[in-house]
Amino acid sequence: MNAFVDKLSRYEKVRISTDELQEIFGVAEYGAFYLIVSNLVEEGKLEPIKASRLNGRMPPLYNRYRIVREQNDPAAFVAEIRLLNPGLNIEGYLARPQVYRKHREVILGLSRYLWHHPELLAKPMSCKERSFSIWGKEKFLEQNRALVKEVLEFNGLAPGFLHTYDTPEPFFEYVFAAAGSTKVCIIENKDTWFTFRKLMRETGKNIFFGEPVHVLIYGEGNKITKPDALREYAREMLGQQEAAVRFLYFGDLDKEGIRLYARTRKANPGIDLHLFVPFYSLMMKLASDRELPLSHDRRDIPVPWEEFLPSFPLAEQQRMQEIINSGRYIPQEVINYPVLASLLS
Fold first, then answer.
1. How many angstroms from the chain centroid is the CA of residue 272?
2. 225 in the same domain as 150
3. pLDDT in tens, 60-92
4. Full-model pTM
5. Residue finishing a domain among 147, 165, 183
6. How far lies 94's CA from each of 102, 154, 269, 307, in Å?
7. Are 128 and 138 in contact (CB under 8 A)?
């Protein structure tokens, strides 16, 4: 990747077309070129010029990009620092621009959050939920704990300022209430499972989108895809015949999330297993106005769309395919504690 960064640094103009990029990179195969550009955007070396529109190819790129130059001159940050939210240590960063440069990615996300969504800090979120809410990456906080702690201290903010809670390793299930006809929600990610459980325990409520949820299962990756796992769970753990149990699946909107659902269905023939459709629709709505993270799944494994898309209206089917075919995804953590609390009845 450094070779491509070097080529960008030698390009004299700030803006560059996609065709020019492909030419100076010397990469003829479009799929490989797409991955290079996507990684450079992720690393902050390129910024898409969204007004230039998408190029119409699959997966799509924008027609023009802005090259982000390395800012070695501390004075280059002054204007940016002055635009930070006034609740942050603006004077401290003006006096020590080298510290700002180190903190820049953390502080810019935090400043945007304080300008546009300060009310969300009044409600707790899991670490991954808060991380996605502020920085658009669900693992950012987990991967940069020491740096975030340093940023909070430099800005005179308390350790609990981000109002997060930890999600310890959960039990496989949480039984809210026994019922004659049981509805079980299978949740792909630990943080989301824990948030569901936390809210249901705190409120004594268990209805989402009109559906009562009696049991929560944390899918634990491929464990949920073992042959007849759900049939055995219904009989051995719930003491019910599988016909009396309805399973609702909710996972990330990404390639592997769709594959996990398809494998779970295939491994459990005859089980009443369906997608928890309203949650996926809400994920797309919540993610509609934000830059989505790049997927790290580069495997050439087909996405079983036929198992997934028919549950949704045509417009949502098309939007889902656009997101995933463009190399992006929506993590479950976009539905965080305050969002989930507003749905619960």
1. 28
2. no
3. 999 999 888 766 556 668 888 999 999 999 999
4. 0.68
5. 165
6. 13, 13, 63, 55
7. yes
